[in-house]
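User: Reviewer 2 asked us to show a designed sequence for the structure in our supplementary figure. I'm pasting the structure tokens here. Could you produce the per-position amino acids so we can include them in the response letter?
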């Protein structure tokens, strides 16, 4: 039996920067893919761990880069090959002339959530967000960063409910872990956040979930973004130079999606996720499993063009984009379509 080490030694390893057609036949191309702390880029963690990348002749090498702008910069500088980016930052960079394309989603549904201190009388906003926004008037609202997508989307929801940004006080609280701490210590009253925030509240039960964008019925400006919550990006130069590598990246991602979406594999997916997602909070393993179950429907490659257009319209409305941008020009013509892309 040929071991993995012997097989690897017998292969020629090249980077994705190499010109296709100029390397030996038995070649494994290294593809450096952006990852994040937490659940991160789970589709490609699974693709690497389960051998789907190797099956298609690539070695998926996960590169932890903590922010979207740094990931895009690293991709443009050829320090990584695939960035995993939020559409808001992506659209702004593309509008300014950055040369890249979206080849898939990687994560489809909007991650936005609102959680509050348990003693506050705030109605659930999944069916009707306006009473919730009214109840939060005058409150301290935690956001990951000031001026970021979370704050801008909260302000847009406030405007749609007849309120304005000045009706709230915004406080930067960082990631869900630090946001949870700020909520418990009453530094903030509510947080516009993302997973595992809702799962922390639902498992530990010392905060309350009042809005989950991925399952809410409105507003359409938020629900209409489901289908493009995160984007897999590669440079235009890489598309032109290495189309076979792009196809291999997509094929590995689709196989990972199929594996993840099979309920029989849930325990193994949790085990892969836990390698990079330890939660140092009470009931951390239970929170991780609940969080993964919550995001599972989102872990698909398909990219919705309509959702991308809605996101561009949103950031134009809130003044983050100076003029309308045609997001069709951002999408690779062979971008992933399965699982909801259109």
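Assistant: Here is a per-position design you can include in the supplement:
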């Amino acid at each position: 039996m040929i071991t993995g080490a012997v097989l690897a030694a017998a292969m020629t390893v090249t980077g994705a920067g190499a010109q296709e057609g100029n390397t030996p036949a038995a070649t494994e191309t290294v593809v450096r893919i952006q990852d994040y702390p937490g659940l991160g880029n789970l589709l490609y963690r699974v693709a690497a761990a389960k051998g789907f990348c190797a099956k298609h002749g690539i070695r998926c090498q996960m590169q932890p880069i903590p922010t979207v702008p740094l990931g895009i910069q690293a991709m443009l500088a050829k320090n990584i090959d695939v960035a995993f980016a939020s559409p808001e930052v992506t659209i702004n960079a593309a509008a300014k002339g950055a040369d890249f394309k979206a080849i898939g989603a990687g994560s489809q549904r909007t991650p936005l959530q609102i959680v509050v201190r348990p003693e506050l009388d705030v109605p659930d906003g999944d069916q009707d967000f306006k009473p919730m926004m009214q109840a939060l008037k005058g409150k301290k609202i935690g956001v990951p960063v000031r001026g970021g997508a979370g704050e801008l989307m909260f302000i847009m929801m406030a405007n749609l409910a007849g309120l304005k940004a000045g009706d709230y006080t915004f406080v930067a609280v960082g990631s869900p872990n630090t946001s949870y701490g700020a909520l418990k210590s009453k530094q903030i009253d509510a947080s516009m956040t993302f997973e595992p925030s809702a799962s922390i509240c639902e498992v530990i039960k010392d905060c309350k979930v009042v809005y989950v964008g991925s399952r809410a019925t409105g507003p359409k400006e938020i629900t209409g973004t489901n289908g493009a919550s995160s984007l897999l990006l590669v440079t235009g130069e890489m598309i032109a130079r290495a189309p076979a590598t792009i196809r291999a990246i997509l094929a590995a991602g689709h196989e990972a999606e199929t594996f993840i979406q099979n309920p029989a594999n849930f325990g193994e997916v949790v085990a892969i996720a836990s390698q990079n997602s330890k939660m140092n909070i009470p009931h951390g393993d239970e929170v991780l499993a609940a969080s993964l179950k919550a995001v599972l429907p989102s872990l698909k490659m398909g990219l919705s063009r309509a959702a991308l257009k809605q996101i561009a319209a949103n950031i134009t409305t809130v003044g983050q984009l100076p003029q309308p941008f045609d997001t069709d020009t951002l999408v690779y013509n062979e971008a992933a379509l399965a699982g909801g892309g259109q």
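For the response letter, you might also mention the following. The mean pLDDT is 90. DSSP finds 15 helices and eleven strands in the chain.
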